[in-house]
Design goal:
Blueprint lengths: L1 H18 L11 E7 L12 E8 L3 E2 L4 E3 L4 E11 L4 E8 L2 E9 L5 E11 L4 E9 L15 E6 L2
Antiparallel strand pairs: 1-2, 1-10, 3-4, 4-9, 5-8, 5-10, 6-7, 6-9
Length: 159
């Protein structure tokens, strides 16, 4: 079944090329899934960096900077999932460029407490999306749980 779809997709591209039509509207897969928050003792305003890339189709997520750069204009879906240690509180923003797109807050009461925040945004090519640390409750120890449950940052082109 997958082979048949791949063959059909290739055939459509070749057919359009023979007709002299543009193939720019053929679907492109852009998606990433990253985990392991590498900077767990954060200062307000810092970008959250997820250093382990599980998938990065299209190469748009940078695991050194923590920034996703849209390779093409379109509608994108993102989700951030952060887990914090007991007794800690956190707030973070989903940023599009220098603007806060959406925010969330969580507090860990028993064990690791987690919060997720989805965001769907219409982006232009080269727009940047990243997570910005807003606040924390303790500066002397890590507030993020490491291991299970795991903090993640994901995104994909949906249209």
């Amino acid at each position: 079944m997958v082979y048949e779809k791949s063959f059909l997709y290739l055939w459509v591209i070749v057919f359009l090329a023979l007709l002299g039509k543009s193939t720019q509207y053929c679907p492109t897969t852009i998606a990433f899934h990253a985990n392991h928050l590498s900077n767990t003792q954060l200062l307000p305003g810092n970008t959250l960096v997820f250093s382990v890339i599980k998938m990065n189709l299209g190469g748009a997520y940078n695991s050194t900077s923590g920034i996703f750069v849209a390779p093409q204009a379109g509608t994108y879906s993102f989700n951030a999932h952060l887990c914090l240690a007991v007794g800690n509180a956190l707030a973070f923003d989903v940023m599009v460029g220098s603007s806060v797109y959406t925010s969330t807050y969580a507090r860990g009461y028993n064990g690791c407490g987690c919060t997720s925040i989805p965001a769907i945004a219409v982006l232009n090519q080269n727009d940047q999306v990243y997570l910005r640390w807003k606040t924390y409750s303790y500066t002397s120890s890590s507030v993020i749980c490491q291991g299970i449950p795991e903090s993640t940052f994901t995104g994909m082109l949906i249209n």
